[in-house]
Design brief:
By secondary structure, the protein is mainly beta. The protein is 6% helix and 43% strand.
């Protein structure tokens, strides 16, 4: 590729571009990004903005060589417009000669690296440029914005090399002023899972037999979440399930509690949604339900109201009677059938002869 350094020695009036010149602070001339600050406080992803690179308060300008870059993590190049010569662009810079000609030395953009190199020179008998003008404008699109707890993004639109020369090829002292794009970090998405209900399908279960527990879990956050839900009898884990819920949705999970190995007695059932990454509101992750009695097999009720299902420590006629009253029923059974899950002793979904046989087998047994 032909370089500026290879061309300029043949152009006396633009020899300065073959020399690296460090800006000095004593000159009044400035090469700057305008506006100097572009700032977004709300979600700006997808929005576009335009900046201008200007040379301000210059005298006897005949050529320039400017290199510019940006951060491609946050900004995507959209387009640019070169404002040379001023004969064509009233807000532009440099003049054509009497033949209407100006020399373009570089106009090279690299959207992957995020760089732009532009160099132009007036040609003999063109007048020198004096005053202020725009070299080029560039439009960007915001493609990413930080999210809390990430910090704000301060992106430099950097003029990393700026050379100016007069019509004798001598450097023009100047300073350069970069631009800043400030993207304020957006509030983080709300991550919030919860257990909002627990419903044991029995209130009494024979020791060594099983029962079902329905748990309602919810995703109250802004994003889909995959999380675990665990049920407990007192402090002992019963079962864990993994679920995925979309934002602002809920579902009912059914857990099986096999009471083998559990001593007879009252057990408080609870369910716990494991916190997800970024969750801060964990007060509703745990839900405590009612208690369930693990009883002697066949001991379903006592001498009071049998339908209260409070075991009395002995398997007798009241237990056989209550199972017999529910005989033939299942969860969707209609009256006059009576369905009660407590009478489904073996938890197979129907009250039948097998349940009566279990109670009858233990008839007369008693104990604590």
């Amino acid at each position: 590729m032909k370089t500026v350094q290879a061309v300029l020695p043949a152009i006396l009036i633009f020899l300065s571009l073959a020399v690296t010149i460090n800006p000095v602070s004593s000159g009044a001339t400035v090469v700057k990004v305008d506006p100097p600050l572009v700032e977004y406080g709300t979600n700006a992803t997808g929005q576009q903005f335009t900046v201008a690179i200007k040379i301000v308060d210059v005298t006897n300008l005949y050529g320039f060589d400017i290199k510019f870059r940006w951060n491609t993590t946050f900004l995507d190049y959209v387009s640019h417009s070169v404002r040379v010569p001023k004969d064509t662009y009233p807000d532009g810079i440099l003049w054509n000669n009497t033949q209407g000609t100006i020399l373009k030395l570089e106009d090279e953009i690299d959207t992957t690296a995020g760089t732009y190199w532009i160099a132009y020179s007036s040609i003999w008998n063109a007048p020198s440029f004096n005053g202020s003008g725009t070299v080029f404008t560039m439009t960007f699109q915001i493609i990413s914005q930080p999210v809390q707890p990430q910090p704000d993004a301060n992106i430099t639109l950097q003029l990393y090399s700026t050379d100016l020369s007069n019509n004798a090829g001598a450097p023009i002292p100047h300073t350069s002023e970069d631009g800043i794009v400030k993207l304020h970090a957006l509030p983080g998405a709300d991550h919030d899972v919860a257990v909002v209900g627990i419903q044991p399908l029995k209130t009494v279960v024979g020791q060594g037999y099983s029962m079902l527990i329905n748990v309602t879990a919810a995703n109250q956050g802004d994003l889909a979440e995959t999380f675990n839900v665990t049920t407990y009898a007192n402090d002992t884990s019963i079962q864990t399930k993994t679920i995925t819920l979309t934002s602002q949705s809920f579902t009912t999970l059914t857990f099986m509690w096999n009471t083998s190995g559990f001593a007879k007695g009252n057990y408080t059932l609870s369910a716990y949604a494991w916190p997800v990454l970024g969750e801060t509101d964990t007060a509703d992750n745990n839900f405590t339900g009612r208690w369930v009695i693990v009883s002697m097999v066949g001991d379903l009720c006592g001498t009071g109201n049998a339908w209260d299902f409070v075991p009395d420590g002995v398997v007798d006629g009241s237990d056989l009677s209550i199972v017999a009253k529910c005989y033939g029923s299942w969860p969707e059974a209609q009256p006059p059938m009576i369905w009660n899950a407590n009478c489904d002793v073996n938890n197979d979904g129907v009250v039948d002869g097998s349940d009566l046989a279990i109670v009858a087998k233990h008839f007369g047994e008693g104990g604590p």
